[in-house]
Specification:
This protein is α/β, with parallel strands linked by helices. It contains seven helices and six strands, in the order E-H-E-H-H-H-E-H-E-H-E-H-E. Strand 4, helix 6 and strand 5 form a beta-alpha-beta unit.
Length: about 200
C-alpha cells in the first residue's frame, strides 16, 4: 500500500526478534513474498534461528550436528520447508541507502515481493562519524518511505528505539535518536514488555 509502518520500543524489548517473527509469519503462513533486511545477522544465522524455532531444537545443537536420528529427520524436514517459503533475507551492514533500495527493487522484479521489513533503523558502524546522527537516520527513513514504499507500492515495516515509559523527563512517547520517525511514518506502534499484573486480558 506504499506506507511506512514503524514499531517503536525501548532498548532490550526484543525489536529484532519481533520483526523477524512478523516477517516470517507473513511469508510462511500468509504465503506473501517478503524481503527482510537484517542489520545484524547473516542469512545463514537467521535461517538457523528460524529452523530452531520451528523444530524446537537449540541452535547450537543444529549447527554442531549434535542430533539423534529422530531429530535429524525433523530438522531436515523443516529445512526443506524453509527453502520453499518466499522469504528473501539479506544483511544490510555496510550497505548504502541506494544499495538497499536497488536490492529491494531487484527482489520485487525477480520474486514479486509484497512486503519489505527493515529490522531496525539505526546508525550502522560504517555510518558513525559521517554527519549528524538524526540526519543520517532521516535519510534512511526517507529511502524506506519515498524510494521503496511509494515507488514499489508495497508496505515497509521497520523499528526504532523509544524512551522507556519510566523516563523521568517525560519523553516516553518519543523516539531516542530522531524526530523523523514521527514525521515520516504513516503508522506508529509502541512495543513494551509487560508483566501479568499489567495485562488487562482475561486468560
Amino acid at each position: 500500500d506504499g506506507a511506512l509502518y514503524v514499531f517503536g520500543a525501548p532498548e532490550k524489548v526484543g525489536k529484532s526478534t519481533f520483526m523477524l517473527d512478523l516477517a516470517w509469519f507473513v511469508a510462511d503462513k500468509l504465503n506473501i513474498p517478503v524481503a527482510y533486511a537484517d542489520t545484524e545477522m547473516t542469512t545463514e544465522e537467521t535461517l538457523l534461528r528460524i529452523c530452531s524455532k520451528l523444530s524446537g531444537i537449540e541452535e547450537d545443537r543444529i549447527s554442531e550436528n549434535l542430533l539423534d536420528e529422530k531429530e535429524e529427520l525433523l530438522v531436515d524436514a523443516w529445512w526443506e520447508h524453509i527453502k520453499k517459503v518466499k522469504f528473501f533475507h539479506f544483511n544490510v551492514n555496510m550497505m548504502t541507502n541506494a544499495e538497499v533500495e536497488s536490492r529491494v527493487k531487484l527482489l520485487q522484479l525477480q520474486h514479486g515481493i509484497r512486503l519489505f521489513v527493515y529490522d531496525y533503523c539505526k546508525i550502522q558502524s560504517h555510518e558513525a562519524g559521517l554527519g549528524r546522527p538524526d540526519l543520517i537516520l532521516a535519510a534512511k527513513l526517507d529511502t524506506l518511505k519515498e524510494k521503496i514504499a511509494k515507488q514499489c507500492n508495497i508496505p515497509v515495516i521497520t523499528s526504532g528505539q523509544m524512551y522507556p515509559k519510566t523516563d523521568e523527563r517525560g519523553n516516553h512517547n518519543r523516539f531516542c535518536e530522531t524526530s523523523h520517525f514521527t514525521k515520516l511514518a504513516d503508522v506508529i506502534c509502541r512495543l513494551d514488555r509487560v508483566n501479568e499484573e499489567e495485562c488487562d486480558i482475561d486468560l
